[in-house]
Task: structure prediction
Amino acid sequence: MDFEEGVTLTKYLIHGGRPLHGSIEISGAKNAAVAILPAALLVNGKCRIENIPQISDVTLILQILRELGAEVRTVNRTTMDIDCSSIQNAPVPYELARRIRASYYLVGALLGRFGWAQVPMPGGCNLGGRPIDQHVKGFLAMGAEVEVRNGLIDAKAPGGRVCGGQVYLDMVSVGATMNIMLAAVLADGMTIIENAAKEPHIVDLANFLNSMGANIMGAGTDVIKIRGVESLKGGSYSIIPDQIEAGTYMAAVAAAGGEVEIKNVIPKHLDCITAKLLEMGVEVEERDDSVVVRRDGPITRTNVKTMPYPGFPTDMQPQIAACLCLAQGTSVVTEGVWENRYRYVDEFRRMGARIQVDGKVAVIEGVEKLTGAPVHACDLRAGAAMIIAGLAAHGDTEIDGIYHIERGYENIVEKLSDVGADIQILFVPDDDAQPQVG
Ligand code: EPZ
Result:
């Protein structure tokens, strides 16, 4: 997508009601990439990283790495060479770091490499309170002194190197598990993380670090052991496909109907999503590295509860809710991870959905049709859900706040257009409020 001078990209316009047909290629996983790129800070040598998704969160992290002195060279559209051999430790730029959640991985990586890190408190989607106490608990267990003040996380290892430690996480946290792993790979001694998260991106980060010479055991189980090594050398690594991007397109086919092959996936990572779609009467056929999703009959009601992997992912909750708005009967969705992940519900209601929310539970009474409306993408996955609802709705849906969507979905408009969706980007000139189709 090109950005023309003097033009601000603002909205998506979807003319709904067209079933989807064809194939979609899935990009590298966002939540793996945003940890693996900071992990390159730990490596003394050149890392070639393949299958990097082209999304704005990745652009920001690469910009931060460059600011810290990393040499970043584009090999092709999805491959970068990153050399952090001669980086200097310095406070991470506030304006960049506060715009993304994953900037917290810079704390673990810089603390691990230099024994000191100063990083602004992270940003990211507003899903209710997003504390980092478990990250801090891990760093403290490794002998670091940690202070949060003036909007900064300041972590320091007396003696310049963290040491091995044992930490039991009070709740399963993806971010804390990865951050402690990052700090521990170069530590003096063994670190043990108990009650660790098991998401595919945890395993991917461990595989990346191990391929560079780290010694991490147990990633993918709830106990991870990291034996510190003296240094990491360079190498090549390819990021796993994005489980949530794939799940989002699966849900899009479920809602809009049609038949689409979702390519370049690891079907095992999609089991939790596939199982739910099958319950809803959607056909899903697994192949070696693709899944074919087909829906021509009605959607059956079901209940969904989100939980850490291998449970149903919270990052798929709004998208599956979009499908359930059109199911026969009443479904109950329970959010088991985040405090506030139903901010999108008012937007669905504008389209004719019938949803009641009480705390962590949403009761969705299926309707025969949704109708297009102007709606707002209030966060990344809510934005994806608005697209899904728009594809299934009768009439036109205009979505604003799409910068949220572009944080995590590569070329979403092109990918959906290629399978027959009528979706366009609306540009609004800076000095004119009237949108132009581009
Ligand atoms: C990661 O966030 C993802 N973000 C989120 O994806 C995802 O929703 C989440 O994991 C759960 O899968 C990235 O990977 C950048 P957590 P993270 O630590 O690591 C509580 C998306 O849409 N908690 O696993 O920040 C927390 O409040 C995004 O791609 C603490 O209390 O999530 C939450 O209730 C949105 N203290 C639960 O644990 C802590 O120190 C899980 O959070 C840490 C977490």
In short: The chain has a mean pLDDT of 93. The radius of gyration is 22 Å.
